[in-house]
Design a protein that fits this description.
Blueprint: H1 2-25, E1 26-30, E2 33-36, H2 37-49, H3 56-78, H4 85-110, H5 115-128, E3 131-140, H6 143-154, H7 159-166, H8 170-173, E4 178-182, H9 189-195, E5 208-210, E6 213-224, H10 230-256
Antiparallel strand pairs: 1-2, 3-4, 3-6, 5-6
Helix pairs in contact: 2-3, 5-10
Length: 260
């Protein structure tokens, strides 16, 4: 009797010992089918990519999600849904999406944007940057009113005072029409086209019409456009270069492909 009990105990221990590695490799066993630990890791990585931290509480929630997914997929397979043409097409699209995403991620890992790349791009932008204008304007409702203001300025009226008194633009009007430093692309085309024709200290001799009304414009100063310090714009510059390189990679693949 003791020998029988000993053999049962040994068998139980051996079974438990064999089960432990299996459990270590799997999240759980659902209806006899293992749910591999790799599936839980994939869910954790997916959440980490979204920016959410994965702590023990979240990991437990993801474990339950992995188990539920297996239960639901098993039920779908029982109903033969995997062989449905619609499901097959959707699975193919999902596979393509994942592979494409990983292809692009792999390309970016193999072609990182270095500090030297960022410095070179920053220097290029600085060298090719255009002009900045420190301009003022007076915005009114009619052409006749704008002409009257130009006539008053010609007689010696101060631009800043007329802007405070007459401009319909409350933001700049209160500051004497001052629009601060800006590049021409900030303004609507009609405004910027008139502004860039002016030299330092010059005022438009005729009213300028835009969708906002009629403007009298004066340029107080002009300078070469100045970029913020490299450290301040490094994240945006890095993202821009990454997107540019990725677009070039996509275009190179498209151009080399034989499409019939």
């Amino acid at each position: 009797m003791n020998n029988v009990l000993s053999r049962v105990a040994v068998a139980t221990c051996l079974a438990a010992g064999l089960a432990m590695p299996a459990l270590a490799q799997n999240v759980a066993i659902v209806n006899g089918k293992p749910v591999p630990m790799a599936r839980l890791k994939a869910l954790e990585q997916q959440m980490a990519r979204s920016g959410r931290p994965v702590d023990d509480a979240v990991r437990q929630q993801l474990r339950e999600e992995a188990i539920l997914r297996e239960i639901f997929v098993q039920e779908a397979d029982k109903r033969g849904l995997r062989s449905s043409p619609e499901v097959k097409a959707q699975l193919e699209l999902a596979t393509q999406t994942i592979l494409i995403r990983e292809l692009f991620a792999d390309y970016q890992r193999r072609h990182p944007v270095t500090d030297a790349d960022l410095k070179a791009e920053y220097d290029r932008l600085n060298a090719t940057s255009g002009q900045e204008y420190r301009a003022r304007h007076i915005l009114v409702a009619s052409e006749d009113e704008a002409k009257a203001i130009i006539a008053e300025l010609a007689k010696g009226a101060r631009f800043e005072e007329l802007a405070k008194q007459r401009s319909k633009d409350p933001g700049s009007g209160a500051n004497g029409g001052d629009l601060d430093w800006a590049t021409p692309d900030v303004f609507v085309p009609e405004f910027s086209q008139a502004m860039v024709k002016l030299g330092k200290g010059e005022t438009t001799s005729t009213p300028v019409k835009t969708p906002f009304g009629w403007h009298v414009i004066r340029v107080d100063d002009v300078r070469k456009a100045q970029l913020p310090p490299l450290d301040d714009i490094k994240p945006q510059l890095q993202q821009q270069l990454q997107q540019q390189r990725l677009a070039e990679f996509q275009e190179s693949l498209r151009s080399k492909a034989k499409v019939q």
